[in-house]
Amino acid sequence: MSRTMNKHVLLVDDDPIFHIIFTRMIKKVYPELSVNSSLNGKIALEYLNTNYSEESQYIILLDINMPVYNGWQFLDIIKKKEIILNNNIIIFVVTSSTDLDDIKRAKSYSFVKDTLSKPLSVDSLNHVLQPLINE
């Protein structure tokens, strides 16, 4: 039996309702995934600093507009850290912004896989989580 990698989903959004809905959706369809919630980028970075492992796979659903550290600040700090080079973190920017500059800016980060519009559908959530499930 092959050793399975720990698989984590990190929800980074200042809307607690988003956390409740998506944690339930993810756990219902993918009970084997660990789901963690952060209400801003600073909490998410603290979580990664404490819990990050090269042996694990991470998918981060990142909102842009948040207090304390917003999505851009989170991305800039992640970019400066070497951990992103291990290719075990996949980031999806999830935003209600329709500003094309935001979408273009998000895509300028090589480790941002895609931008998704809120509200997220079950289909888009399945698309996002597929890399974790297929490993």
Envelope shape: globular
Q: What characterizes the major β-sheet?
A: 5 strands, parallel
CATH-defined superfamily: Response regulator
State the share of residues found in helices, binned by percent. 40-55%
The CATH architecture name reads 3-Layer(aba) Sandwich
Task: Quote the distance from N terminus to C terminus.
Answer: 14 Å
Q: What is the mean pLDDT?
A: 87
Oligomeric state as shown: single chain
Structural class: alpha/beta
CATH topology: Rossmann fold
Low-confidence stretches: none
Total domain modules: 1
Number of strands: 5
Question: How are strands sequenced across the largest beta sheet?
Answer: 2-1-3-4-5
CATH level-1 class: Alpha Beta
> Over the alpha carbons, how many angstroms does the gyration radius reach?
14 Å
Binned strand content = 15-25%
GO biological process, one term: phosphorelay signal transduction system
InterPro entries: CheY-like_superfamily, Sig_transdc_resp-reg_receiver, TCS_response_regulator
Keywords: Phosphoprotein
Modified residues (4-aspartylphosphate): 63
Kindly summarize this structure in a few lines.
The protein has 135 residues and is α/β, with parallel strands linked by helices.
Helix-strand layout with pairing:
Blueprint: E1 7-12, H1 16-29, E2 34-38, H2 41-51, E3 57-62, H3 71-80, E4 89-95, H4 100-107, E5 112-117, H5 122-133
Parallel strand pairs: 1-2, 1-3, 3-4, 4-5
Helix pairs in contact: 2-3
